[in-house]
Design brief:
Blueprint lengths: L38 H18 L15 H14 L4 E5 L7 H10 L1 H5 L3 E5 L4 H6 L3 E4 L4 E5 L1 H4 L2 H8 L3 E6 L4 E6 L2
Parallel strand pairs: 1-2
Antiparallel strand pairs: 3-4, 5-6
Helix pairs in contact: 1-2, 2-3
């Protein structure tokens, strides 16, 4: 048995593990009504959920790669896949692009819609307000706890609102070549 109590070859590792990325989404699932009573059926159910989550996040090709050997962006996607495999009603992502390079930020943001496409509510807390234009349908601005504004990204993420929130001048503009609106602080 592994330290987590799982038999060898079917472990469900944490971030520090050296096991295949495909094993990460197989973490313990919350008890559900109607779950299989037989162990074999339960294992197949978990495996199917893990495979579907890896596909939904675009990392099925990493199934046999060891977790420490994949990039930071791929690790973030594996962690998102783990959350999706739990089949939750909602997912909270606190800074899912933190510590990622530009390319991996784009890859993660492009896949954040996967949970929503499966009917899962996504609550995202990015530090870059421009990320909301990439993947959000509704936003809320908070200052020291309370929500000070809520609505669509276009209605709420204005230069004035962002200046008031962050204390710096912010340009908000649609970039036709990118097909989306971006935010940039005036330095």
């Amino acid at each position: 048995m592994s330290p987590g109590g799982h038999s060898k070859g079917r472990t469900c590792p944490g971030q520090e593990s050296g096991h295949a990325a495909a094993e990460l989404p197989c973490g313990p699932r919350a008890p559900r009504r109607g779950r299989p009573r037989r162990v074999g059926a339960a294992v197949r159910l978990v495996r199917r959920a893990a495979e579907a989550a890896l596909t939904a996040t675009g990392i099925a090709h990493l199934a046999d790669r060891r977790f420490p050997e994949v990039s930071g962006g791929e690790r973030q996607m594996a962690l998102i896949a783990r959350a999706l495999a739990q089949e939750p009603g909602r997912v909270v992502m606190d800074e899912p692009t933190a510590r990622l390079d530009f390319g991996n930020q784009a890859r993660v943001l492009a896949r954040i819609g996967a949970p929503a496409a499966r009917g899962i509510a996504v609550v995202l807390s990015p530090h870059d307000p421009g990320h909301a234009f990439t993947c959000a349908t509704r936003v809320a601005l908070m200052r020291r706890g309370p929500i000070i504004a809520a609505g669509t990204p276009d209605a709420i993420l204005t230069p004035e609102a962002l200046r008031d929130l962050y204390g710096v001048e912010v340009a908000v503009a649609y970039v036709a070549a990118a097909g989306r609106t971006v935010c940039a602080p005036s330095l």
